[in-house]
Design goal:
Elements lengths: L1 H20 L68 H11 L2 H16 L32 H14 L6 H16 L39
């Protein structure tokens, strides 16, 4: 009887220990879950950066490439060397004809060169005669006619050069050589016989109106001081 009671007490003690060791029931989750607080706004709000401008392409070049035959841009000393054969001295032929002229004609050759270059550059346009298309050639302009001299010397030198070297020597270069030679002879050598660059091209436009005193680039007449 005592043993039965003791056994009953032992069972009750064991049951109470098991009850103490059991984990507490888990708490059910709270619904809805608490919301996360947003960060406070920044004042003033930053302005968006403007888009970077797209660089414009460079404008097309309007420069015109220079032609290798542009008159006056390729002048050089000794231009006619070996252009007319080894034994043709172009400048020597011009010098020979200038030397034969009198002092007045030599002075006229210097003035001829100046008047030629003053209108349209040194292109021998002052030598051109009037024709059916142009009745007012440059040589007949008031500053030039009838006082300008030296045409005969240029014509004689040109004729000899055409016979020896056809189509090679420009009248513009002959006029330039002749003015240089005339300066040398008239000064008795005091004006140095300098090297005259050559390679000029002859012009084909000759207008007396461009020598008129009504134009901005007017030429002095022979009576001007």
């Amino acid at each position: 009887m005592i043993a039965a009671k003791l056994a009953m007490i032992l069972v009750m003690v064991l049951l109470s220990c098991v009850s103490c060791q059991a984990p507490p029931p888990s708490q059910p989750p709270t619904y809805p879950p608490p919301a996360t607080s947003p960060p406070p706004p920044i004042y003033p709000p930053p302005s968006p950066s403007p888009p970077q401008p797209t660089p414009s392409p460079p404008p097309p070049s309007t420069a015109t490439p220079s032609s290798p035959d542009d008159a006056g841009k390729k002048l050089k000393v000794g231009y006619y060397k070996n252009k007319c054969g080894r034994y043709i001295d172009v400048e020597g032929i011009v010098k020979k004809h200038v030397n034969k002229a009198d002092a007045g004609m030599k002075a006229g050759l210097i003035r001829l060169f100046f008047h030629d270059c003053f209108v349209r550059g040194c292109d021998a346009s002052v030598l051109l005669d009037k024709n059916n298309d142009n009745q007012t050639a440059e040589k007949f302009g008031i500053p030039n006619f009838p006082s300008l001299r030296g045409y005969e010397v240029i014509d004689d030198a040109k004729a000899e050069l055409e016979a020896a070297c056809p189509g090679k020597v420009s009248c513009a270069d002959i006029v330039a050589f002749a003015a240089r030679d005339a300066s040398f002879f008239l000064s008795a050598g005091k004006v140095t016989y300098f090297a005259m660059p050559a390679g000029r091209y002859d012009g084909n436009v000759s207008l007396a109106s461009e020598t008129s005193s009504t134009f901005r680039r007017r030429l002095p007449a022979s009576t001007s001081s």
